[in-house]
Amino acid sequence: MHGKTFKPRTHSESPLRRAKGRFAALALAALLAVAAGLCVAGCSPASTGAAAQPTFTPGTYQGVGSGNGGDIVVEVTFSEHAIESIEIVQQTETPTIADGMLEELPATIMAAQSVDVDTVSGATLTSMGIITAVSDAIQQAGGSLTTMKAPAGQPQTGETVEMSADTVVIGAGGAGMAATIRLEELGHSVILVEKTYRLGGAISVSGGNQVVQGSKLQAEAGVTDDSPESMIEDFQKNGEGICVPELIQLYAENVGETTDWIHEYAGVQYNMEGGLHDLAEYSHNRELAYEGGGAGATESLRKAVADSGAEVLTNTRAEELIVEDGKVCGVKATASDGTAYILRAENVVMATGGYGNSVDWLPDSVKESALYYGPGSSEGDGLTMATAEGVNAATRMIEYVKQYPNGCEVSKGHAKSTIDGNLLVWPMSTILVNPEGERVVNEKASNHDILEVELEQTGSMLFLLMDAENFAVWSEKLADTGFNSRSVEDYLEANGATTPIWIHGDTLADVAEAAGMDAAVLEQTVADYNAGVDAGVDEFGRTGDYLQQKIGDGPYYLVEQKPRYATTMGGLVVNTSLQVINTDGDVIPGLYAAGEVVGGVHGSNSPSGANNGWVLTSGKLAADAIAAQDAE
């Protein structure tokens, strides 16, 4: 093996800038080839004989590709005829989605000595970014993508494995993990099937907040007069009065007990120091954040699953429900290595999540108006399997998708959330302004009301305007929703020249100029807000603890706020035992559903913290219903 030698590069030439021009065509070609499953490392030996031995100029080279969260930079070391090492030196991917894969995929490329490897389900854009970056380095080292070793991909075993358990749970997000943990606690054997390479689902990339109404934790945090009836009323108001009555009642009556169980038994920790959140959607404070956000909760749930004794199959896609004599009694699945699984069970829990990333199920209107921030695995698989001929599950409210007003477009069509930081600075002096520099909404209005105003603005966007003190507090929470310090530095360095738009300047005039605003308008907006603080009266209705602090000294910051979505409101029809109902209105024996795949509980629009509370509650309740039925 040759010693490491870096290709000469001037100090002013960053790998990111270098890649933009010369590598654009290669990046597109590699991405299209991988997406289409074509050979990008040479023709197969079957068609042309053995692939030619690759030849490289030994040394270490930096390559760049575009991931889900921004550019991915790799350092690839070559000997004369082989890739010797691959190190990822820069990336801004979402930790809960990409961490394990950032080690797994380079190892796969190394083992195959080829860039024609499978992308990782649930992290497709990150996978393609790594493959593109390694391809860039290959060309710099004098190698040719067409003379690399023949495509290897994953070894295809062709094996069929039959397994059985009391219950098969499909999907390892919050609902699937909660159902698995609870079933094993109750003495039932479980096979948990997850199509991606790790457990987590939507809760792992969520803002990390949860409704805790009726729990010991809510009382400990100071609220003892909340009730299921109050929660139901608030949810119906937020969901335009179309929440399915029996489901929202089921949720409201059980979320407190579930919260205590998930905390005490499964080890999920809540941020009691931060306390309950004061939200416009709720008549009582009933939302808590997880310690460490969605990522922190997910790690606790993963550990609880591992400790439960359940059989876990990752990188394994459930494809078809097994139905015999009208009863669901198992699942057919296929692993990424080609292994076919026949999984038999008395009951199946469908916990496959939503359809926010589905071509077939997601309404076109949503695709055109908002940025996606959920997991790539939310493809509507559960709906497709359950509505197949012979199962015939009923669905409802498919047209409804939850949108939030606080997204940053970190890559084309994809967002990350700033909601955790926003909650910290609303009691301070952060305000929302439109692209013209005007304040247009009460920042403490509901997400739904802010979203409606946001959609009416130029470019369907608003900006957070923060002074130095507010920005310091706000930025502390960015890591909990997937941002990292390097990406934040890059956004600020661009200073509005690229998406996402994060602008900073010593004066209001500076930030206005960078944003293309009229400086006089922005300065007047700030003066009007500060005058309202002095008078104790705000023209947009901001009151009390949220109108105590003036916008102070710079530097000042503008951070984009765009519509984002992940959670889908529609899904399968279930009864209060979480049994799936068919199109004739009858129970489908053996089939249960939990989490986002269930339709109607939130109506048209879920309030903050509702989705995480529902997935955990319904997962536990599905397990309880199965155990109760088996005990009869």
Distinct helical segment count: 20
* N- and C-termini, Cα separation: 67 Å
Low-confidence stretches are 1-51, 149-154
The average pLDDT score comes to 87
How many β strands by DSSP? 22
- What is the approximate shape? globular
Question: Share of helix among residues?
Answer: 25-40%
Strand content: 15-25%
Largest sheet: 8 strands, mixed
Question: What is the rounded Rg?
Answer: 26 Å
Q: Structural class, from helix and strand content? A: alpha+beta
Provide structural commentary:
With 632 residues, this protein is an alpha+beta fold. The strands form five sheets. Strands 4, 5, 8, 9, 10, 11, 21 and 22 form an eight-stranded mixed beta sheet that branches. Strands 12, 14, 15, 16, 17, 18 and 19 form a seven-stranded mixed beta sheet that branches. Strand 21 and strand 22 form a beta hairpin. Helix 7 (174-185) runs parallel beside helix 11. The longest helix has 22 residues, at 610-631. The termini are far apart. Mean pLDDT is 87; it is low at 1-51 and 149-154.
Properties at a glance:
single chain; 632 residues; alpha+beta; 8-stranded mixed β-sheet; 7-stranded mixed β-sheet; 20 helices; 34% helix; globular
Write the layout of secondary structure elements.
Blueprint: H1 15-22, H2 24-36, H3 45-48, E1 59-66, E2 71-78, E3 83-90, H4 95-98, H5 101-112, H6 124-140, E4 160-170, H7 174-185, E5 190-193, E6 209-211, H8 216-220, H9 228-238, H10 245-264, E7 287-289, H11 293-308, E8 311-313, E9 316-324, E10 327-335, E11 340-350, H12 364-369, E12 371-372, H13 381-386, E13 395-396, E14 401-411, E15 414-417, H14 419-425, E16 431-433, H15 447-455, E17 462-466, H16 468-474, H17 485-494, E18 502-505, H18 508-515, H19 519-535, E19 556-568, E20 571-572, E21 579-581, E22 587-593, H20 610-631
